[in-house]
Amino acid sequence: MPHIDYYFSTISPFTYLAGTRLEEIAARHGATITYKPLDIGALFGRTGGTALKDRHDSRKEYRLQEIARQAKKAGMKINPQPMFWPANAAPSSYAIIAAQAAMAKGAGGDLGGLVHGVLRACWAEERDISQDDTVRDLLTAHGFEARLADSGLLMGAETYANNLEEAVGKGVFGSPFYITDCGQRFFGQDRLEDLDLHLAGKL
Predict the structure, then answer these.
(1) What is the sign, positive or negative, of the torsion defined by CA atoms of 125, 126, 128, 133?
(2) Which residue ranges make up each domain of the chain?
(3) Strand, coil or helix: what is 188?
């Protein structure tokens, strides 16, 4: 059974624009997914990236155009400059980590839906994903216990930090980033088609 390690930031617009295509691809090929939220700012600092605020104006302008184009292409609503951004990604990331751990112990819930729900809240619904009430609401909406927002804090913080170290070691440098169990790396939501072809044995 193929496996995909999925590295991402809950405040990345291009991760939001991936939608639920990863889950659809995984289902098509019988693949499993491990969700690995991480600190994108720290990742940039470790791998040669540049924070948005420090980029040249031409790069900032292109980013906005590309976000709008990709959203239109995907048929997705997006505000390229949302009210609550950049938000602290840690609370939502910890909740995702806790939800994944709960599922490993037999709990129900839609983990892929939760991940996309967090991103949609930021980029299409003008919600502050750094706030506990938002995180609890998103957990409940996707079949998880709201208490995971609190009970998973310590494990979430440790795993969040470990995800960053692991990502740097495996050559991850942005979000979304997908790595298969045979070591093939795919960066960006616009490479999901390539991931699909790879899992089909065509690429």
Answers:
(1) negative
(2) 3-199
(3) coil
